[in-house]
Amino acid sequence: MRKNRKKIILFPFLPIFYDIINRCEKKQHPKEENTVLLQKLLEGIPYKMLQGTNEVEIKMPVYDSRKVQPGDLFVCITGFQTDGHRYIPMALEKGAAALLVEHAVEDVPENIMVIQTENNRQALAALSANFYDHPTQKMRVTGVTGTNGKTTITYLVRSVLERVGRKTGVIGTIENRIGDKVIPTERTTPESLELQALMEQMRQEDVTDVMMEVSSHSLDLHRVDGIAYEVAVFTNLTQDHLDYHKTFKAYIEAKKAFFDRLPAHAFALTNADDKNGLVMLQNTRAHRYTYSCRTMADFTAKVLEKHLDGTLLRLDGEEVWTKFTGDFNAYNLLAVYAAARLLGFPKENVLEYVSLLVPVSGRFETLISTEGVMAVVDYAHTPDAVENVLSTICGLKGRDNQVITVVGAGGDRDKTKRPEMADAACRYSDHVILTSDNPRSEDPEQIIRDMLTGVKEGFQYRVEAITDRKEAIRKAIGMASKGDIILVAGKGHENYQEVKGVKHHFDDKEVIREIFDLSNR
Fold it and tell me: What distance in Å separates the CA atoms of residue 70 and residue 77, rounded to the nearest whole number?
């Protein structure tokens, strides 16, 4: 067959032609290409064979019974709403060759291998890394955890590294990226199987450095087990996700686990100004580093001047003008600088690149009307984030100007932060409009009622509720005069609004531009 190919006249394009043919041939035989010995998949995982042998060939580990194909290993995950063990019959009907279970199961044919572990989420992470041959060991991975700042830091570290010629990957809230290629994301951190597959795709596409947001959910659910981190960054810890973790202590422990699991050769970088910052380093084996804007640390920064269009910092002893606003961004930029230094890049280069960075979409992003009204769009969706953004705005506005805040809270999420978000908005704003965020399956008016419980006596006159988010933004803009600043908080980069489980197109920036009549600017 190859002799015939050599007779093709378009000789210069033969290598490309061969590559296309080979790729097509591989796609026709995915089973032969991906088959792995079950014993190899289970390396490093404590397990017990309940039935059969571990020397069977496995095509793919799968935890969704609907996706099982002949020859797969079906991993039974005990979830919050359903138990994967219930779907064993479906997996077997689809041709699963082996089952990974957490307890003994009945009525499984003798030719099916059955393996038991104590925690299948941990096992799935480990066998996924084994299946893809540990791709993160062949790249440098920087993980960022904390309540606020994860997205900004990961994207800015990416920008610094790309300026020095590295090919980067990003895994996070806004999107996943391989170089310039954008891959939509449904949640901050994918399940461990999809995460390892994405990492392997990055490795195949010659990515050298990966920047990754590491959520508390992913740590608690073992999604990020098996990732070889080079640098781990802690930003801060404030109230969030208590709908999942139940207590603030459990939330702290989830974040701390990230650093507890680091290998000795990694770098652990923490915010020394956060009261939980040094807690993160208590049991880590990694090299320990701190950053601070207030006290002695390995990496330091000080705000020298604040302006609406940027901030002058003294960063590691050198003055640097940045295009970012607010003390919280001083911390973000300091963390970016420190992470880049720990990755081995020279001080002079990193300082230069930090001065060239621009804000991430939906993070203190500003629009100005022809009448001189400024709107700030920010992803702030926790009490602390709302307070940080508003305190920055208050420090920059004119004495006679007002701050108007449009804010909501997400449905099916931590309800305890709703009144605190409203309280923060009231304390820093002249007028507050409570509205919808992503109500999801909840009644948006009930979410607003929950927020209203946080409005303290004497502040009621500042607050009104407008459920329709577009109308709330329109009302805020209509109230504003030249020099006033409007904060539209909670959605930031998001271009949708989820109501009753359905996503509708909605973009705060588009709405503001339309009302400002900036569509042609």
Answer: 19
Report whether 465 contacts 452 (CB < 8 A).
yes
Q: Measured between alpha carbons, how far is residue 195 from residues 267, 418, 494 in Å?
A: 22, 32, 22
Rg (CA), the chain: 26
> Taking the CB of residue 373, how many other CB atoms lie within 10 A of it?
22
Check residue 83 and report its DSSP letter. Answer: B
Q: Which of 64-73, 330-339, 378-387, 463-472 has the lowest mean pLDDT?
A: 378-387
Average pLDDT for the chain: 90
Nearest CA among 365, 354, 350 for reference residue 322: 354
Helix (H) or strand (E) holding 264: none
HSE-CB of 49 using CA atoms within 13 angstroms? 12
In 3-state terms the chain splits into helix, strand, coil percentages (rounded to 5) of 40, 20, 40
Contacts of 275 (CB under 8 A, 6+ apart): none
Distance (Å, whole) CA 485 – CA 373: 6
15 pLDDT more than 60? no
pLDDT digits (tens, 9 = 90+) for 409-445: 999 988 999 999 999 999 999 999 999 999 999 999 9
CA distances from 93 to 59, 152, 177 (A): 16, 46, 36
Residue whose C-alpha is closest to residue 333's, from 461, 408, 235, 426: 235
The kind and range of the H/E element at 306 are: strand 299-307
Among 155, 141, 493, which residue's Cα sits nearest to residue 332? 155
CA distance 341 to 350: 7
Integer angstrom CA distances of residue 373 from 402, 512, 518: 10, 11, 12
C-beta separation of 484 from 402 below 8 A: yes
Element (H, E) at 183: strand 181-183
- Relative orientation angle of helices 327-342 and 383-396, to the nearest 10 degrees: 110
Asked if residue 388 lies in contact with residue 380, where contact means CB atoms within 8 angstroms, the answer is yes
- List, for residues 148-174, the tens digit of each pLDDT value: 999 999 999 999 999 999 999 999 988
Size (the chain), residues: 521
